[in-house]
Amino acid sequence: MNKDVAIIKERFMIEKNNITNYILLMKYDMKLPYCIEVQNHIEDLNFYITFKYNIIEKDRDTISLKEASTLYKLFIGKLDELNSIVTDINNELNKVEDAIFYDNSESTNIEESIYNIIYDKYSFLDLYEGNNKCSYTYEELFKYISTQLDYYQDRTLTFSDISGKKKEALIDYCITNIYKNDLVNINVIETFFTDMNIKIQANSRDNSLNVFRQGFILLLTTVDAVIFDLVRILLDNCFFDYIGDFSRKDDKIRVSEFKEYGNFQIFKDNEIRKRLKGKYIKDILGIFQKLEVDYINNNFTILIECINRRNIHIHNQGIVDKNYEEGINPYNLKEGDVAYITEKYFNKTCGLLECLIIELCNWICKKI
Questions:
Q1: Does 29 reside within a domain?
Q2: CA-based angle 38:178:182, to the nearest 5?
Q3: Which is nearest to 4 in space by CA: 284, 296, 234?
Q4: Which pTM was predicted?
C-alpha cells in the first residue's frame, strides 16, 4: 500500500476507535442512577419538602428514562421551596456565627430563634412527641446535640461547668453545625438531580446531547476530511488521468498560465485546490460512483442518506426538511419527522464508513 494512503488510513482507524471509545465511555458515565440511589435522595427530599414519589426498588436496576424525567420535573417544581430553605438556613447560620464569640444580649434571642426553627421547620427526630413540642431544657438539648456531633470531645467536662453565656453560645454552635450538615445534604440533593438531568438528556434520542448523535456527527466529520485527503493523493499521483473527472465543464488549463508558477508541482497543487474548492462530500462520492468504485456503487444510496442525515442534525436539529424528504430517502421519512441517531443506526453507519475508507484506500492504491 502507498505510504501516504497507509498513513491516512491508519489515522482514520485511530480516530474512529477514539470516537467509539468515547461512545462507550459516555454510555457508562451517563448511565441513569440505580432505583435504590434515587429512592434515598427522595427520602432526603421528604425531610425538607413535600416530595411524595415512590419508585420500584430494584437493587441494581437503573430507573427508566420516563421515570427519571418525571422525577426531575417534580424536583424543578420544588426547587424554589428548597432554595428558600437554603436561604433560611444561611441567614440563621450567619446570625449564630456572629454571636458565638461574643457575650451580648442578642445571644439568647438568636438561640431562641434557632430553637424555634428546629421545632417549627425540621422536627428533628425525638424532639417531637406526636403533634406536641417537647419541653427541652438547655441541658437536655445540649445532650441531644452532643450525641449527634463529634464536637463534645472532653467527656470529663459537664454541662454545668460551663458559664451561662458560653453555654448558650456552645448550644448555638452545636445547632449551627447541624444546620451546616443539613445545608451540605441539600446541596448534594440538588447536585444529584442536576446531574441526573444531564444524564436524561444524554440518554434521550430527542436531545442534542444524545451520545450517539454526537458520535455520529464526529464520525461523519472525520470521514469527510479523510476522503478529501485521499482525493488529493489520487490527483497528485495521477493528475492527468483524473483531474478531468473532478473538473467542471468550464474548467480549463491554459498553457499561458504555466509561467506564473515556479515549477510543475506548484502548478499541480494549485489546480487540485481549485478543482476541490466548493465541492462537498456528496459530490466526491458521486465522482467515485462514475469512476465505478464498487463499494460506493453498491452502497451509494445509504452513504448519501447518512450524509444528508448528518446535515439536518447540524443545521436543523435532526428534523427532516424538504430537501431530505425529496432527496435520497430510503427510510421514507416525512418533512417534520425526526431522523433519530439510535445506537443501532450509529453502529451500522460506523461499519459502513469504515468499509468505505478501507475500500477507497485499496482502490486508490491500485490506481497509483
A1: no
A2: 25
A3: 234
A4: 0.69
